[in-house]
Every structure is written in structure tokens, then in C-alpha cells.
Amino acid sequence: MRYFIEFSYNGKNYFGYQIQPKDISVQEELEKALSTILREKVKTTGAGRTDTGVHAKKMFAHFETQQVLSDQLIHKMNSFLPPDISIKRIFHVKDGFHARFDATFRTYEYYISLEKNPFTQDSAWQLWRRNIDVHKMNEACKILFEYEDFTSFAKLHTDNKTNLCKIYKAEWEQNGTELKFTVSANRFLRNMVRAIVGTMVDVGSGKIQPEDVRNIIENKNRNSAGTSAPAHGLFLVDVGYEF
Prior knowledge:
Layout: E1 2-9, H1 26-38, E2 45-46, E3 55-64, H2 73-80, E4 85-93, E5 105-113, E6 125-126, H3 134-144, E7 167-175, E8 178-185, H4 192-204, H5 212-219, E9 234-240
């Protein structure tokens, strides 16, 4: 039987979601807990692979077992897992339903602090030394909807078969001294959101103009875009399915 897990994690202590040969990952901790509690070797498949230091407020993975799972499994998992990983739900799905390939959209949020804030050092990019024009950044965001090839925002030398993505939402909001960027798409390339954020900050700080984003995308060259924003400000907040 195939089961889905909904969970969240603080990515500070992990080298991303996906299992690494030598470094600790969220997937490794998840599989270790499941295998120990169910007393069988359990492999999981995640909805995606977040980079080192990136957080997830809502993440999904699937696994298979012949056991009928107890209602106490969530409690047992949360007791076994470290404090920075939390299980929200475990539920049965139809055979073949896939955490990665059946996802219809993914949504990320990126946080920037415009003041020196000791309480968001691990969860927001500290940009209190810069003046940021949010209106210009939102003007630049509108250009993203005109394109589907985001090679300029993709990590170099990856195994991507295509760099085509359909962006559904891209918007900056300001609440006092906090900026939040929300972006939703059918899929994302590795490092794509952080590269977009870095480029938008270049727009907001006056280094480039909103219209320059069009040229950056059309160049299809990672060197044309801005520097990637730090990982710790990025959160995966939703993954959509047609259950």
C-alpha cells in the first residue's frame, strides 16, 4: 500500500531534503524513523529536493508498506525525529500516486528583513543596509509571466531535461520592515527561486531596471542574472495535488 506523509522542517542543520553520500539530510532522518518504527526498510520519495539550508512549511513524500498503519504512527514519528522535523499527516493514497510527478504546483516564500533583526537571522535575508523599491520589484515580476524558459535562473551543470516552467504567481509584499516574495509554478529548476530573488533585489536597489529582466531571461545565461539569495530565507510552503 502507498502512503503519503505531510511534514515540515527547519533546514538549517540539513544539506537539503535529498539523501547525500556523506552529509545529513531530511530524507535520511525520515527514512531512519520510519524504518525503526515499522521494523522494515522504508524508502521515501519526496515532492522535490530543497537545497542546503532551505526550509519547508509543507512538504510531501510517499512510501510503501504492507502493514496497516496505526493512528499512533504520527505521534511515534514525532517522538523519534529531531525537533526540527515535524510530521503533520500520514494517509493512504491509490497505488502509483507519486509525490513528485503528480504534483500540480509548488509554492515558495522568500523573506527579507529591512532592519537588523536578531530573531530572523536564520529565516530571512538581512538587507537592512539597502534601500529597496518594492514597486519596481513587482513591475519586474510581471515580466516573468511572459516566459517559460528560465535557463538564466537555473543552476549550471544539472541533469534537467528541460528548463521550461510555467509561473502562476510572483509577487512581493511589504509588512513593516519585512518583505515576502511568493512564487508559484508547475515546477522549479534548482536554485531558480533564489536566483530570481537575487535579481529582483538588484531591481529594487536600482542596480538594474525592471525592463532589464526581460533581457536577462532572453539571454538564457545564468551569468546574466543576479547572485543567488541566501538559502535560509527560502521556504517551501505548499505542494498541490488532485487527491
